[in-house]
Design a protein that fits this description.
Blueprint lengths: L1 H8 L8 H15 L2 H9 L6 H23 L5 E3 L3 H10 L6 H20 L2 H8 L2 H22 L3 E4 L3 E4 L4 H18 L5 H23 L27 H4 L5 H26 L11 H18 L4 E3 L3 H9 L3
Antiparallel strand pairs: 1-4, 2-3
Helix pairs in contact: 2-14, 3-4, 4-13, 5-12, 6-12, 6-13, 8-12, 9-10, 12-13, 12-14
């Protein structure tokens, strides 16, 4: 089995093995898993069923990431993009009054255009035209954006009129966040194999134990986290193939479709370039390896997103975590 996987993915040629790849895959999954809940939480504000979007999100993540691995042979996770889902919800549907079915149709149409641009090599030429300084800058910018989302989600930073951003009030959630951040940072600095996996798992366990003890002792009015009532639930197909393609092709949807197109395109290109630099998957000409296949897999993700019932899929910067875990010395 190991020999077959090594042959399919050229593991020895890239200086890795099956064990390392499994570890890196788990790390990437743990850092990306938030999108399974966050994406339906955002899209459900449009009136889309939460459970339906959740199942669609899972399928988009699975099909897209598998396509990226099998077709492009690259360690990039793909899932519905943060920022794009906010545009879908707050600008397209709630702001412009577009029906969510029509918005899904716009995602699908933009995906088809993506595929055309990828097959004809237009997206590849765009990548070649981006200077290295801009590649690094955009990748760092995406990382800062995600860090800002995380800090805001736990209440570490809050919105303030005077300074735009300010510190939130110290509470138990923030203390647990700091414990997890410090623990993971120490593991990373010490170059411990599986640092991110250990840090995420340890923080989750500590938070769960603290929540249970706090509720039992009475110094918590509500749990920080709750244990799921069950391990399995039947999926719902409420948003499957509910897209309105005809509506998306109307004259009034030209601007929204092209906004989705260019937002998704430059989001995926910048992320792809950033992760490729971290992974060292750069050819002798300074360009990412298998760039054509990777962009086509990314375009495929956007297309199936519209069909399955989610906002556009894109390459995730969190893939760099898995790359780093895989690059750690044994």
């Amino acid at each position: 089995m190991n020999n077959m996987l090594e042959k399919i993915f050229n593991l020895r040629e890239r200086g890795t093995d099956v064990k390392t790849e499994i570890l890196a895959g788990v790390a990437t999954f743990l850092t990306m898993a938030y999108i399974i809940v966050v994406n339906p939480a955002i899209l459900s504000k449009t009136g889309m069923p939460f459970s339906g979007v959740l199942f669609a999100t899972v399928l988009v993540c699975a099909f897209s990431s598998i396509a990226m691995g099998l077709y492009a042979n690259l360690p990039y996770g793909v899932a519905p993009g943060m920022g794009i889902n906010a545009f879908f919800t707050f600008t397209l549907v709630l702001g412009m009054g577009v029906r969510w079915e029509t918005a899904l149709g716009a995602v699908f149409v933009s995906g088809i255009i993506f595929i055309i641009l990828s097959v004809t090599g237009v997206r590849t030429e765009i990548i070649k035209a981006i200077p290295n300084s801009l590649r690094y800058g955009v990748a760092v910018g995406i990382g800062i954006f995600l860090a800002l989302i995380g800090l805001e989600s736990v209440g570490f930073i809050v919105s303030k009129k005077a300074t735009v951003v300010g510190f939130g009030n110290l509470n138990l959630v923030i203390i647990l966040f700091l414990v997890g951040l410090i623990l993971t940072s120490i593991l990373v600095i010490k170059k411990i194999r599986g640092a991110f996996i250990i840090g995420i798992t340890a923080t989750s366990v500590i938070t769960l134990v603290t929540s249970v003890i706090g509720m039992s002792a009475g110094w918590l009015t509500r749990p920080i986290v709750t244990i799921p009532e069950g391990l399995f639930a039947l999926p719902t197909l409420d948003v499957f193939f509910k897209l309105d393609i005809a509506g998306a092709l109307s004259f009034g949807m030209i601007l929204p479709v092209f906004t989705l197109l260019f937002t998704d395109m430059f989001d995926s290109i910048s992320t792809f370039l950033g992760v490729a630099e971290v992974a060292g998957l750069i050819d002798e000409n300074g360009q990412p390896v298998n760039v054509e296949k990777a962009l086509l897999a990314d375009a495929f993700s956007t297309t199936i997103s519209g069909l399955l019932g989610s906002s556009s899929g894109t390459t995730y910067i969190e893939s760099a975590v898995g790359v780093r875990e895989g690059a750690e010395p044994v």
